[in-house]
Amino acid sequence: MNKQSIAAGYRLLAELFVNPSQRDESNISNWIMNVKVDLPDVANIVEHFLRLDASLSSNEYVSTLELSPPCPLYLGTHLFEEPSTCSGISSSPRNAYMLELGGVYEHFGFDLGSIELPDFLPVMLEFAALSLEQEEKDTIGLRKRFVEKYLRLGIRPLSTRLEKFKSDYLLLMSAIEILVEKDLQRTADQPMWEPNDETAQSVPLPVLSNSNVDDVIKKCYEIEL
Question: Which CATH number fits domain 3-221: 3.40.50, 1.10.3480, 2.20.25, 1.25.40?
Fold first, then answer.
């Protein structure tokens, strides 16, 4: 499988999970062309989605995915229960999940600044594309862990929510699933980084130093969902 096609697919879907009023139509057209040969199923799903009225509706996007949404695009919200008290934030499994994502991003030089949270789906898709193009930076299998443990596990519960609300964005989730499986097939014979004390849900990544954990937490929670 051509990794450039997979990277183009990730970028295409990241763009489609942006508010329709802010999408770059030229990039969308180019990326569709880039995936047509190697990933025809993805191209067909996207073209079908773009023919639907919902794909062009900012109101549909905001009401479903953005404004007090039933289906938020932050994957951690679908994987972990939100803390009920302020004191629970520091020990929240989602907080650890975002810290781990931040560590993986840092390893590849992917800087979010203060624009978005690490578990925002378009951000994760963009990183999946960028890290695929920079595989030489990964000698321990961090990217494979990102795709399998963070991205794939998160898109399934989000898909379930979108299905419950009969959202047309569910089509795009099926395209992401195809991309993820093709991506993992490429690295089936390669090791995935695993911590010695792997737990059922979430573990700290070694690329996060103790000195920057507080900074990452602060940066994450300066952004309002």
Answer: 1.10.3480
